[in-house]
Amino acid sequence: MGMRDRVSDALKGAMKAKDTGRLSTLRLINAAIKDRDIALRGEGREDGVGDAEVMAILGKMVKQRQESARAYEEGGRLELADKERAEITVIEDFLPRQLDEAEITKAIDSAIRSEGADSIRDMGKVMGALKSRYTGQMDFGRVGPMVKERLA
């Protein structure tokens, strides 16, 4: 079952259960996917968004909500920060399990070996390999400096 189908099924389930919080987040996910579909049609791609792109959209949505929650906390708006965290929980239901620190380190070492990287000039190859294998499973903003440190 594709990501799009999983979101649709979850949307229908939330409607039946009258779970308004989950329903609103699922509608946001659906809207983001459709927006990307429309943008791709404008570029001449009629096939629409694939599963990998849906994962990227979801990852971006999680990151946006984490930043918003942090901003709300700093502003003393804890109820809004809690709402953002609840949305993150719903979105993460569709993402693969996040790798822990040890698994990320192991993945970086493996990618460096498989790409034959030995200097900072090979960082792009290593990051490309990691993104192709672990999209949605790690925060590449955090992983980049780790790769850079290993290759330096």
Please tell me about this protein's structure:
It is globular, with a radius of gyration of 18 Å. The chain has 2 domains: 3-92, Orthogonal Bundle (Hypothetical Protein Yqey, Chain: A, domain1), CATH 1.10.1510; 101-151, Arc Repressor Mutant, subunit A (Orthogonal Bundle). The protein has helices at residues 3-17, 20-42, 51-74, 78-92, 101-115, 123-134, 140-151. By secondary structure, it is mostly helical. The longest helix is centred in the middle third of the chain and has 24 residues, at 51-74. 76% of the residues lie in helices and 0% in strands.
List keywords for this structure.
mainly alpha; 152 residues; 2 domains; Arc Repressor Mutant, subunit A
Short description:
The chain has seven helices and no strands. The protein has helices at residues 3-17, 20-42, 51-74, 78-92, 101-115, 123-134, 140-151.
